Amino acid sequence: MPVFRFADLKSEYVTPKYSKAFGPLLTGTQIEVGRLRFGKGEGAVPHAHPQEQIMVVLSGRLRVILDGQTSDLGPGEGFLAPPNVRHQVQALDETEVLSCKGLVDGRGHRI
């Protein structure tokens, strides 16, 4: 599907093992992109994965702890988590993010 609308894609809990991220995902052959939501106080527990990940805040505020350093991010700000680097996030408000993750062994966000 070369053209899509996130609003037309099925929403799901995309990383239930680690987080409360909920929203639609679009999966290609090498990358997966999700428009994900976190309720205030929700987030992802400390974890690492073999996929590189970029997350950009679209609305709300997000606290990220990446490799032991804490940053509070707002709209238009984001972070890059290299492969196998421990990180966690917590929504400081109702928050929407764009999360991009490389595919490793055919898997992206669904870990």
UniProtKB/TrEMBL annotation:
PANTHER family: H2HPP ISOMERASE. SUPFAM superfamilies: RmlC-like cupins. This is Cupin domain-containing protein. Gene3D superfamilies: Jelly Rolls (2.60.120.10). It comes from Candidatus Segetimicrobium genomatis. Residues 36-95 form the Cupin type-2 domain. InterPro entries: Bacilysin_H2HPP_isomerase, Cupin_2, RmlC-like_jellyroll, RmlC_Cupin_sf.
